């Protein structure tokens, strides 16, 4: 399904010689493309659906052919919607969901299997056994080495907790179950890559097998401290892995046969890091919360990777020139998933109605919802947790259920925020939100109340696209400086916690403490539900 957005008259533009930057974001549920002008305004857009595949319980896949078709469709559609010509596109930036991967034949470019999604749970038992294994206990002895050497990467090794969202064990699963992958590895003709790598390979007709630091750092097989792939972790030769390039890098141009003209590919970014850049969170202590299919909370830790006890993950935000910026990240996997599930159950017809439904009742009538269709991530890290509704009564209405679901989104935000404050001990400078779920005023106001901090929502919620465009534009001089980018930011609404001072801060809301306590009790009961 292809959708176009704002259409403008093309005549005046084509005669002015204007140029534009194009950005594509390949997400979990959609592929979007925007054409940006110098003011970072969207001149044309197109979107196409991503249809996930569920071949078995716990397996989540995507068809590589459909991803490629969707990518081409949205690029052509957005340029058409903008009323401009392909030759007016100066640069292309690409943002993609992370840790979704496939393997393919180096000579033919044909994938050996579907993309295995970051949401996939097929390696849950492997992850659990590894985290309990002797190997992990040996890695735990790195704590002593850290005490003696004070090298943070050794502390990270002692604290590391793998999850199914990391590529590591899903790749190990693929090697174990797909004979043709093992054979291709043995013959030296296997390529591994996340979506960005595969798209680069396709766009350049096999000339480029590369990724960037932001995508590589989110795989779980990349050492963010030593900035290199840990080939020994999955017993694979370095040759199957892509070359890791700067985020803002000239990745070559698209083959002219694809869009009619070659378009320079000037940035490749992981979606959450791209959203961070799009929100202009360039300074230490800047926080970005993206609420889409899942929630991803990132804090800028500047040049230092953060070492976590509770499952926050150190990722490279971006590497531009010699500058490497690190982020600490926590996530909740089922934010938009829970809301879509509720819609499919016909608790509401239009997602825009949910905020009003939640405000129409004074509380959830004691109902608690645990949004863990894909297990629980930081700080609890339980892949065997189940989603659940507890506290149902004959008096429970649809509005109570909707309020409980929206409250659970804000409660998970609060869990991640508290973990981030406790672990990083970095003073928070600003909090910006984006993603489709951030358009819900009830969720955003409750989040601000629980944080006791001002939360700012931009006018355009698709920050991953904008971030990829910003980096690509900086690379060709379309925009000159980051200060210039900050001036292009637009704000839709600021959510102030009730009782906030002029700076938008106050003591954190105590009104919700009993509700939070009930929800945390429901959370504990949902844990370790699915036994091995």
UniProtKB/TrEMBL annotation:
CDD domains (alphabetical): ASKHA_NBD_FGGY_GK5-like
Main enzyme class: transferase
Record-level GO BP terms: glycerol catabolic process; glycerol-3-phosphate biosynthetic process; triglyceride metabolic process
Principal location class: cytoplasm
Keywords: ATP-binding, Cytoplasm, Glycerol metabolism, Kinase, Nucleotide-binding, Transferase
Gene Ontology molecular function: ATP binding; glycerol kinase activity
Top-level division of the source organism's lineage: Eukaryota
Location(s) in or outside the cell: Cytoplasm
Pfam families assigned: FGGY_C, FGGY_N
Entry GO CC: mitochondrion
Stretches assigned to the Carbohydrate kinase FGGY N-terminal domain: 21-278
EC number assigned by the record: 2.7.1.30
Keyword tRNA-binding on entry: no
PROSITE patterns: FGGY_KINASES_2
Pathway membership, UniProt: Polyol metabolism; glycerol degradation via glycerol kinase pathway; sn-glycerol 3-phosphate from glycerol: step 1/1
Location of the Carbohydrate kinase FGGY C-terminal domain: 288-473
Keyword DNA-binding among UniProt keywords: no
Functional note: Skin-specific kinase that plays a key role in glycerol metabolism, catalyzing its phosphorylation to produce sn-glycerol 3-phosphate. Involved in skin-specific regulation of sterol regulatory element-binding protein (SREBP) processing and lipid biosynthesis.
UniProt similarity note: Belongs to the FGGY kinase family.
Protein name per Swiss-Prot or TrEMBL: Glycerol kinase 5
Organism: Sparus aurata (Gilthead sea bream)
Lineage: Eukaryota, Metazoa, Chordata, Craniata, Vertebrata
């Amino acid at each position: 399904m292809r959708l176009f957005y704002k259409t403008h008259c093309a005549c005046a533009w084509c005669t002015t010689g204007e140029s534009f930057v194009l950005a594509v974001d390949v997400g979990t549920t959609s592929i979007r493309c925007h054409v940006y002008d110098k003011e970072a305004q969207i001149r044309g857009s197109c979107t196409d659906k991503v249809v996930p595949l569920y071949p078995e319980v716990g397996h989540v896949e995507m068809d590589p052919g459909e991803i490629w078709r969707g990518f081409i469709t949205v690029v052509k559609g957005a340029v058409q919607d903008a009323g401009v010509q392909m030759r007016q596109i100066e640069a292309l930036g690409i943002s993609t969901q992370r840790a979704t991967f496939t393997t393919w034949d180096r000579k033919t470019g044909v994938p050996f299997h579907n993309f295995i999604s970051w949401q996939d749970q097929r390696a849950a038992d492997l992850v659990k056994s590894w985290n309990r294994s002797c190997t992990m206990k040996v890695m735990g002895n790195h704590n002593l080495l850290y005490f003696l050497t004070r090298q943070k990467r050794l502390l990270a090794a002692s604290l590391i907790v793998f999850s199914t969202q990391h590529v590591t064990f899903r790749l190990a699963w693929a090697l174990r179950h797909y004979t043709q992958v093992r054979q291709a590895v043995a013959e030296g003709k296997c390529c591994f890559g996340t979506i960005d790598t595969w798209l680069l390979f396709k766009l350049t007709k096999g000339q480029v097998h590369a990724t960037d630091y932001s995508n590589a750092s989110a795989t779980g097989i990349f050492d963010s401290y030593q900035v290199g792939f840990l080939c020994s972790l999955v017993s694979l030769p370095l040759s199957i892995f892509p070359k890791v390039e700067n985020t803002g890098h000239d990745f070559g141009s698209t083959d002219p046969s694809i869009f009619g003209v070659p378009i320079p590919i000037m940035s490749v970014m992981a979606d959450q890091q791209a959203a961070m850049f799009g929100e202009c969170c360039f300074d230490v202590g800047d926080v970005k919360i993206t609420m889409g299919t899942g929630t991803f909370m990132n804090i800028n830790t500047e040049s230092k990777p953060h070492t976590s006890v509770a499952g926050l993950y150190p990722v490279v935000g971006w590497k531009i020139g010699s500058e490497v910026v690190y982020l600490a990240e926590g996530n909740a996997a089922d934010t938009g998933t829970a809301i879509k599930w509720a819609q499919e159950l016909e608790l509401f017809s239009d997602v825009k109605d949910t905020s009003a439904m939640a405000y129409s009742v004074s509380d959830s009538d004691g109902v608690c919802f645990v949004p863990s269709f894909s297990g629980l991530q930081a700080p609890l890290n339980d892949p065997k947790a189940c989603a659940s509704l507890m506290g149902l009564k004959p008096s429970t209405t649809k509005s109570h259920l909707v309020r409980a679901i929206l409250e659970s989104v804000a409660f998970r935000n609060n869990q991640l925020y508290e973990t981030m404050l406790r672990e990083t001990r970095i003073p928070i400078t600003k909090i910006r939100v984006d993603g489709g779920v951030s358009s819900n005023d009830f969720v955003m106001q409750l989040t601000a109340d629980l944080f006791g901090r001002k939360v700012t929502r931009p006018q355009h919620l698709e920050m991953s696209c904008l971030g990829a465009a910003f980096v690509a534009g900086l690379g060709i001089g379309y925009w000159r400086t980051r200060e210039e980018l900050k001036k292009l930011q637009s704000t839709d609404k600021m959510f102030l916690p009730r009782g906030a001072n002029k700076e938008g801060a106050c003591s954190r809301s105590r009104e919700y403490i009993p509700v939070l306590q009930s929800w945390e009790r429901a959370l504990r009961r949902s844990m370790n539900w699915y036994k091995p």
